[in-house]
């Protein structure tokens, strides 16, 4: 009801579990999938992983659906896994209707839903689970980033990992918002990342940003 009330949003399908969601996405090819994490038959993380894999396999020939996860702080311990699986962001289940609508529109435009209040708490909480390899691998990734990125781009990476918006980064670095967007674009290209969410996860995995830092 909330989404159908929006003139520029059309709900093209609904699913009761992850497997059905995956089937619907493959047929309907929606711009955005609003995905729960905890579902029967196939959870939202696995469904997201397969949706992302489908998009990658298309090689740009098909329209890749972007996934916005629904989560709760106290119950869901799979947010980092969801981001690694290819989710473009996450939203609290008790978010106001206006925030839900805005998040969907942001993700539809190709941006990541990286709300600062959620990002800081979740990435700090799950940071000890982030490194999938040993310290040497993380150090190698940090070294690669430092070799590829300018000092200003590294500053932007650290700011994104802290959950700052473009406007907040611009104010902190005393540059224009357009300049920040340009830096973010360069970071994505140089590191081969898809969006701001992946930048944040990369920053924690590589050690460029420390939990609570």
Description:
- This protein is mainly alpha-helical and 213 residues long.
- The chain has 2 domains: 18-113, Rossmann fold (3-Layer(aba) Sandwich), CATH 3.40.50.2300; 132-206, Winged helix-like DNA-binding domain superfamily/Winged helix DNA-binding domain (Arc Repressor Mutant, subunit A), CATH 1.10.10.
- The chain has 10 helices and 3 strands.
- It has helices at 18-28, 44-57, 79-85, 97-108, 116-126, 135-148, 151-161, 166-173, 177-191, 196-206; strands spanning 32-36, 66-71, 89-92.
- It has a 3-stranded parallel sheet, with helices on both faces.
- It is globular and about 45 Å long.
- The mean pLDDT is 82.
- It comes from Mangrovactinospora gilvigrisea.
- The modification 4-aspartylphosphate is found at residue 36.
- One of its GO terms (molecular function) is DNA binding.
Summary, kept brief:
The modification 4-aspartylphosphate is found at residue 36. The model has no long low-confidence stretch (mean pLDDT 82). Helices cover 54% and strands 7% of the residues.
Tag the structure with descriptive keywords.
three-stranded parallel β-sheet; Arc Repressor Mutant, subunit A; DNA-binding; mainly alpha; 54% helix; Sig_transdc_resp-reg_receiver; Rossmann fold; NreC/VraR/RcsB-like_REC; DNA-binding response regulator; DNA binding; 213 residues; 7% strand; globular; 2 domains
SSE arrangement:
Blueprint: H1 18-28, E1 32-36, H2 44-57, E2 66-71, H3 79-85, E3 89-92, H4 97-108, H5 116-126, H6 135-148, H7 151-161, H8 166-173, H9 177-191, H10 196-206
Parallel strand pairs: 1-2, 2-3
Helix pairs in contact: 1-2, 2-3, 7-9, 7-10, 8-9
Pfam family, one: Response_reg
Domain HTH luxR-type: 142-207
GO molecular function, one term: DNA binding
């Amino acid at each position: 009801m909330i989404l159908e009330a929006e003139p520029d949003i059309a709900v093209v399908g609904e699913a009761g579990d992850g497997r059905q969601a995956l089937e619907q996405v493959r047929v309907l090819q929606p711009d955005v999938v609003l995905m729960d994490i905890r579902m029967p038959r196939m959870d939202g993380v696995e469904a997201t992983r397969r949706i992302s894999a489908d998009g990658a396999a298309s090689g740009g020939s098909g329209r890749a659906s972007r996934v916005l996860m629904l989560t709760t702080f106290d119950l869901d311990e799979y947010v980092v896994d969801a981001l690694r699986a290819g989710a473009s962001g996450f939203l609290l289940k008790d978010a106001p209707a206006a925030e839900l609508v805005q998040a969907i529109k942001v993700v539809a435009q190709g941006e990541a839903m990286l709300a600062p209040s959620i990002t800081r708490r979740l990435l700090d909480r799950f940071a000890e689970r982030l490194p999938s390899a040993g310290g040497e691998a993380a150090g190698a990734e940090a070294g690669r980033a430092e070799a590829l990125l300018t000092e200003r781009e590294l500053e932007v990476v650290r700011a994104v990992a802290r959950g700052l918006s473009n406007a907040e980064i611009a104010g902190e670095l005393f540059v224009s918002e357009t300049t920040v967007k340009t830096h973010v674009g360069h970071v994505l290209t140089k590191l081969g990342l898809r969006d701001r969410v992946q930048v944040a996860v990369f920053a924690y995995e590589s050690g460029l940003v420390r939990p609570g830092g």
